[in-house]
Amino acid sequence: AQTVTQSQPEMSVQEAETVTLSCTYDTSESNYYLFWYKQPPSRQMILVIRQEAYKQQNATENRFSVNFQKAAKSFSLKISDSQLGDTAMYFCASFLGGATNKLIFGTGTLLAVQP
Amino acid sequence: DSGVTQTPKHLITATGQRVTLRCSPRSGDLSVYWYQQSLDQGLQFLIQYYNGEERAKGNILERFSAQQFPDLHSELNLSSLELGDSALYFCASSVGELIGYGYTFGSGTRLTVV
Lengths: 115, 114
Fold this sequence. Notes:
The structure holds two protein chains of two kinds. Chain A is mostly beta strands. In chain A, 0% of the residues lie in helices and 50% in strands. Chain B contains no helices and eleven strands. Chain B is globular and about 35 Å long. At the A-B interface, strand 5, strand 6, strand 10 and strand 11 of A face strand 5, strand 9 and strand 10 of B.
């Protein structure tokens, strides 16, 4: 079965520091897409960053970047210069190709940015 | 505003009742997806429609049904409601059937069954 695993239920970081959230996935497909979504207290799901599996270059979006290790099936999110507004639940998700048309989500990591 | 509109935002109803959740996708998006987010189950995929046709089905209960109309808006019908159906229900949309660019989510409908 195709799965997405986030092993850190909660994390905390000081404002202006850097934090890395971990995600691993399992698939036998060769082409797929990976995503990080942010869910702040407002409960809105916001796309933070995406990565195409066939691209070796790690995606970056301002203070957010990923470390994509295809062989290890690892997709971690690095948040630099953490801000109070980054406090949220972060979900790793994947579109793993094959017959499914759905995004599979991990269980989430609750990130608290401390002042 | 993400461009995906869900109504109502909050719904409180009694066990055994039926409710309808509505979703209007972002302009130009043909695919609509429904997800259920509960505390103990995380984000669970329910069903996907593309241009009016059902495309993929997840762990959707038989008491639940959905459809996508010619104007592309979608409705999720939940019947014979149970306490365990209390959750946040998200609708999301994407341009095509395949989701290489991810979804755009609505703000969700919080359903409370009492």
